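Q: My collaborator sent me two sequences in one message, no labels, and asked for predicted structures for both. Can we handle them in order? The first one she listed is below.
A: Yes, handling them in the order given. First sequence, followed by its structure tokens:
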Amino acid sequence: MKRSVLFILILCIAVIGLAQDAPAPAEEVVVDPVADIIAQADATHEAKDYDATMDLLQQAYKLDAKNVEILWKISRGYFDFADRKPNDLEYKKPFLYKGRDFAEKALALDEKSAAAHKWYAIHHGQVGEAEGTEQKIKNSYGMRDHTLLAIKYDPTDDANYHVMGRWHFALSDLSWIERQVASIIYATPPEASFEEALEFFNKAHALDSKDIRNMLYIGYCYEELDDDDKAESWYKKAINAKAETDSERSLIAEAKEALDDL
């Protein structure tokens, strides 16, 4: 009888020891399908496969139409489509309107979304360009205000400074006729300068030294400020940059043309 009790006691201790040594059951991993699709879209966007990116984002949108990140990334996607033919306004128009709509939806959900402000500003400004002089000037205020908010909420995004530089450059480069239109629309037309444009482009370049757009527009600014030596230097930097997309190749072609005309 004593041996039986002893045997049972030893068996219990052994079972307890095994239980302590046994690995804990793995926690069940919960996969968020929306987050997974967004991650896939980020990967395809990084690879510059914009069609696949938009397909994925549209899938995510069907699952969660109130997701701010999905909304602004779809807005960005429409810009990517429009940017395939940067100088063809008629081609770009439908993409610009759709892109602005999605950025507006994102802002309705989160008015502090820097990315939503940025893409709204970009589309809004280009819609103005596509619709003519009067609309270009009318949209310029909205473009400026949303870009400044984008900078406020995300001062690390180089694109925000580039857009603000483009705002200053475009308004400083208005023709005499456009300035007359501006004076009719506004008692005090928007104030801008090539010097301020240059400051914003330099800030953008400091954050992303590989972006060809910044190099090209820094060159443009120096040319407008009658510093041809610096303009030439920046045009050459743009020409020698690595191009991976049709849009970037178009920018290099612009830089070559600007250098030839200098």
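Q: And the one she listed second?
A: Here it is, processed independently of the first:
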Amino acid sequence: MKTNKKLLTLTILLISATEMGAMGIAPSLASIAADFPDTPITTIMNIMNFPGITMILVALITPFLIRVIPKKILCNTGVLCYAAIGPLGYLFNDSVALLYIWAGLLGIGFGLLMPTSNGLIADFYSEEERGGIMGMQTMFTNLGGIYLTYAGGLLAAVSWHMNYLAYCIGFIPFILGCAVIPKENMEKTKEQIKKEKVRMNPKVFMYGIFIFIFIATYGVFNNNMSFLIESRGIGDAATSGTVTALFLVGGVLGGILFGPLNKKLNDYMYCVGFGFLVAGYLLVYAANGL
């Protein structure tokens, strides 16, 4: 069966739009803390961090799963985990432990879909096509985060339980993924793995450290935004969602500008990116109004 390349591209991009799912609950953290007054604030805040912990554990075994299970199945399972916490979180939320279970399920989904969705790009696109697809992937990842935080914030303003319903949009890429992504030939994949011996460039470890620092500071910003807005008396859960969505607009612009800027700046892109990040954090720290 011939693959419709345009539809496959759309499907992969929509799958990529789920990759910032951990941010979706950010607008509700202050409201959750108010509903569970006996639970320490740090425990509530770590609901957002918990998907990252489970993602790391699952991502460590995903490369081995790819050897025996088609990427299509692993990727779609990951997207289903994202979509499933919509109804699950909305219906079952009477304890912090349950909220951690749904956060863990989300992390399992990320650990499966993030490595495999990038693998699909490598499998079905030429080297010339990949750069453009990955730039669009960054843009869709941020657009997905914008949707989740903005729509989730509006729903959370009604009730924080409703915030979870924003995740139901994940059923769209799940259905498309099941219908559109080709199932790979596992025998061919096993032979290819045996033939290929990849030596990792030492620069990869340096990039990994940079990304670790970025994710650490990035998490602090989003985890604290709803508390910051509430403590300064400048808004509610909907405001938090809007502010986080605006934060991600920069990510969309960054995805659009990344290609041409990267050609000129190369490794200095990290300096420029962290420069903007620090400037933004300092402005938020100094802000006394919306």
